[in-house]
Design goal:
CATH class: Alpha Beta
Number of helices: 4
CATH architecture: 3-Layer(aba) Sandwich
CATH superfamily: Isochorismatase-like
Bound molecules: pyrazine-2-carboxylic acid, zinc ion
Oligomer: single chain
Strand order of the largest sheet: 5-2-1-6-7-8
Largest sheet: 6 strands, parallel
Helix content: 10-25%
Number of strands: 8
Number of domains: 1
CATH topology: Rossmann fold
Shape: globular
Amino acid sequence: MSNRALLVVDMQNDFMPGGALAVAGGHDIVATINKLATQFSNVVLTQDWHTPGHASFASSHPGKDVYETFDAFYGPQVLWPDHCVMGTEGAAFHPDLDIPHAGLVLRKGYHPAVDSYSAFLEADRTTRTGLDGWLASRGITEVVVCGVATDFCVGWTACDARHFGLTVSMVDDASRGIDLDGSLARAHRNMDIAGVDIVTIGQLLVV
Ligand code: VGL
Ligand code: ZN
């Protein structure tokens, strides 16, 4: 059994061009991720999965605009357009994402008052999603992370994977970012500091 897993982060309609919280070029990485996934026997797909009226939505805070921040009980929270509401088409995976052998679909962000960029720890920084246990109980010690958005869910997931003692690579060209007020450069720096190896697809794909 392989000791490494591919974590495919939030490849959902709402993060694709035309979606509610579009990430530029999000659709351009679908084919690459499908191909990358064929090289892994362990694949986890994450799915941003919010309640209607979620606390991370600007629409839940009268007088606030999208991309402003709000003081949540756990610290500053960016306010987003309504996106990835549980059960909606926007929350569904991109129709061309084709990874039937994925062993786990991990949903996150479904507690009404707490966001979760990370697939490991919610934004309160204490509530675990259970992914650390799932990986540990399967003997997985190394993860490769890709998807959207590099500067939010991918970056936080990669850094938290390091926190849980895993060896981590982030595939930069199999990920796309939002880049809100320098967030992309900040995310790269945080990943560097955390010991995430930032790699390109060419370093991973066996041809
Ligand atoms: C994400 C903002 C809000 C992401 C999710 O997948 O990076 N970003 N919710
Ligand atoms: Zn979200």
